[in-house]
Amino acid sequence: MHLAELKNLSAATPAPAAPLQRTVCFDQGRLTIEDIVDLASGAAQASLSAAPAFRAAITRGADFLDRLLRERRHHLRRDHRLRRFLHRHRASRTDR
Known about the structure:
It is a single chain. The chain is mainly α. It has three helices and two strands; from the N terminus they run αβαβα. The protein has a two-stranded parallel ribbon with strand order 1-2. The longest helix is centred in the last third of the chain and has 43 residues, at 52-94. It is elongated.
């Protein structure tokens, strides 16, 4: 076969159809190792369950994390103020 014939042959051959991706649904069920491998390799796509109970659990988890972050920031500010106070107090005692 000549090069021109190979080019014509490849142009006439349709590209193979892309394999359908399976969907791994994140819900109350457990994931399998195969699910993780397929997600990591791109052979599967992820989706979240539309079940109201699952969505409510996700919202409760996010609210819990927000509350923890707010408390942590509060404690960090309080600790920072305490350290500043102690530093100034020590500095004023050494000036005497």
